[in-house]
Amino acid sequence: EFVSVSKLAQLTNVTYQEMADKMEELGFENTSHDHILGSEEAGLIAMEYNFDPTMGAQDEAEAEERDLKALPEPAPEDKEFLPVRPPVVAIMGHVDHGKTTILDYLRKSSIAASEHGGITQHIGAFSVALSSGKTITFLDTPGHAAFLEMRKRGATVTDIIILVVAADDSVKPQTIEAIKHAQSAHVPIIVAVNKIDKEEANVDRVKQDLARHGVEIEDFGGDTQVVPVSGKTGQGIDELEDAAVTLSEILDHRADTEGQVEGWVIEATTKSNGRVATVLVRRGTLKPGTIIVAGKTWTRVRSLRNEAGVVQMSAGPGTPIEVDGWRDQPEAGDEVIQAPNEQKAADVVDFRAELAERIRMAEDMEKINAQRREQQVQRDMTKEAAAAEKAAERAARASGTEVEATATRKPALGNDDNETPGHQFVPFIIKADVSGSVEAVSAYLLQMTNPLCSPKLLRASVGPVSEFDIEHADAAGGHIIAFNLPHDPDNSGRAERKGIKLLEQNVIYRIVDDVRAVLEEKLPPQK
Ligand code: GDP
């Protein structure tokens, strides 16, 4: 489910430049025409244009209703009045350097564990309360890297990375990978030099190796803190937590506890109480009854549970909480946004599903187009096809009504090469609103075929259906597809009198049904 910037511009009927400007406004860094967007990003951008793939023209009021855009972030000068929130910390490092051991040690001091006899379940994240009264939230999921990727698109999931490096093994390939990830995503690092209880431990060597790989550690005049620890004995873990709190204070992590809830799905699964997902709240306060949308599903929150399975009455920014009641399973990484009511939530989910479908189809069409172009290059036009083309051009010139120009016309004529005895070709003329539609409808048409009958593209061009189109279709024994064009009752009448089907359509995939019906008429009756 990916689409290029220029393709999305085409789908939403705006120029590439307009699209690029809008994207910049929305905070996208890369707006080049061939930059590939995920369906979620594409959906967000498309919603800016109230783009609905199922309708040609859309009621503006309804579009506004559907728009569940996030509230604007407070300006920096207002931010200082917001409450402080816990930092969200991810642990990364080379395999066997002690990530799991350190997380296990930290988890034992989780808030939920201390409240509830020490049993915590894995829900993807947990919060640790420090003696200072501060809290740190640790991500506990194998998909850390995915959350870093999200950060790249301007989304803040991970505030700090703790890079675990074993003191007896020093910097290894996955250590370097983690450093690169952190740097490219602009997430600050704290280094935990682990296994210092071991005899072979050499903390200085680790520091030197890190410096060589671009980590500006404090000892050498940089600002990256390095904390020697042992996940096994617990030595240094308090200092590690303090380092995270200090860094969070410097970075001044704050968030609004009021207003529209936003967050991320950290993990999703099915339990005895149905579909559940761990939501990490980014802003606002999640409560039972809150309606939230995530990806292509939504829930009216029935209950909130912490990592000990204990029911909570609310969860604010920086807090991971398990949420139930999902209509479908959300996915880790999905963005969570509050909806004002169930109808809006359902609408947004429908909209996203349709958009994803539309993008998938656009991609299919793109592939088909590319294949056709490829075939065309490899195939010489037969004399007959060339002659037919000349004749059509002469006819068009004689009528003087339009100048046609489209890349999809030639491959269509190539269809004739496949002609087998008894196989019929039904000619179609395509008229559409913009060149993107012409190409899309052409590609769609040409992939439809049945054992006895295939569509053949007579002509395809931008513009309203003209009298000449009807004459031409009539002469060729064909039909006309009018995509995304205003209904013209005169044309309908004229076409009907001549026995020509004028297929007026605003939804691209419904053309399939229309054309199939026309082709099926050509099939011999079932015996
Ligand atoms: P991960 O792959 O990074 O999650 O590493 P693990 O947490 O699974 O640890 C790998 C191995 O190192 C295990 O056998 C741990 O018991 C051991 N280990 C982890 N931390 C320490 C430590 O601080 N000291 C010692 N001696 N062993 C450790």
TrEMBL record:
Q: What is known about what this protein does?
A: One of the essential components for the initiation of protein synthesis. Protects formylmethionyl-tRNA from spontaneous hydrolysis and promotes its binding to the 30S ribosomal subunits. Also involved in the hydrolysis of GTP during the formation of the 70S ribosomal complex.
Q: Which Gene Ontology MF annotations are present?
A: GTP binding; GTPase activity; translation initiation factor activity
Q: Which UniProt keywords apply?
A: GTP-binding, Initiation factor, Mitochondrion, Nucleotide-binding, Protein biosynthesis, Transit peptide
The family note in this entry says: Belongs to the TRAFAC class translation factor GTPase superfamily. Classic translation factor GTPase family. IF-2 subfamily.
The protein's name: Translation initiation factor IF-2, mitochondrial
Name the source organism: Aureobasidium namibiae CBS 147.97
Measured against the full-length protein, the chain present covers 8 to 534 of 639
- Compartment(s): Mitochondrion
UniProt domain Tr-type G: residue ranges = 84-252
Its GO CC terms are:
mitochondrion
